[in-house]
Fold this sequence. Notes:
The chain is an alpha+beta fold. It has 2 domains: 161 residues, Uridine Diphospho-n-acetylenolpyruvylglucosamine Reductase, domain 3 (2-Layer Sandwich), CATH 3.30.465; 95 residues, CO dehydrogenase flavoprotein, C-terminal domain (Enolase-like, domain 1, 2-Layer Sandwich). The chain is 35% helix and 23% strand. It has 12 helices and 12 strands. A 5-stranded antiparallel sheet has the order 4-5-8-6-7. A 4-stranded antiparallel sheet has the order 9-10-11-12, sandwiched between helices. The longest helix has 20 residues. Keywords: FAD, Flavoprotein, Oxidoreductase. It holds the Pfam family FAD_binding_5. This is Xanthine dehydrogenase family protein subunit M. InterPro entries: CO_DH_flav_C (IPR005107), CO_DH_flav_C_dom_sf (IPR036683), Diverse_Substr_Oxidored (IPR051312), FAD-bd_PCMH (IPR016166), FAD-bd_PCMH-like_sf (IPR036318), FAD-bd_PCMH_sub1 (IPR016167), FAD-bd_PCMH_sub2 (IPR016169), Mopterin_DH_FAD-bd (IPR002346). It comes from Ramlibacter aquaticus.
Amino acid sequence: MYAFQFERPSSVADASRLAGNSAARVLAGGQTLLASMKLRLASPETLVDLGAIGDLSGIRREGNAIVIGAMTRHAEVASNAEVNAAIPGLADLAGGIGDRQVRALGTLGGSVANNDPAACYPSAVLGLGATVHTTKRKIAADDFFQGMFATALEEGELITAVSFPIPKRAAYMKFRQPASRFALIGVFVAQTDAGARVAVTGGGNGVFRHAGLEQALSQSFTPDAAKGVKIDASDLASDLHASAAYRANLISVMTQRAVAKALG
């Protein structure tokens, strides 16, 4: 490690001011940032730790949505009674992230802001059509994710919460990369009043919705409907872990299993 300035603000306003410094990085759960610093892939002059800001944590229901604070830990989402009752697929996703240590420290906001192309949470945010609340505005999930590690967040803009609309049904299934426990392919499906939404993570450049699967499942929310959709491998990643063709097959299989899980 190396020398840096450590700041631990107690308010969102102070955190936002400190984060506006281009040489600063925000510390949420630290599961990615600290590892990057150890490997010298990131070298911020200032770390802004959000851990002392109570307003950024917590889970509540507002109307037909579950609102989760940005600093809420994965383990808290997984065990929360409100989430388990309203969106059990989201609680299940949170309970399957990493290992126990990661779930105890990692945060919803940190994962969403980092937007790792194989992370689980972005698929829930996109699959449920969630809204990302920041210190400046509200951003629809469809506008938030912009490619590998890229989001709509501006410099100094912090996520404060994510609002998840409660669907009719939803579920998440992932095929784990055994070493990292990230998703080799993860699929979040949701049946809503407006139709089905299907979000895929681990496929390549970032989380994305699959129009063909959504169309088929909007007509018939069944595993057989998903099975009938051909998955194009041309835009999927191919690496030492899996070929593009294998990932395409996993998208189909994980979608079928997710639908079956959502139907109970």
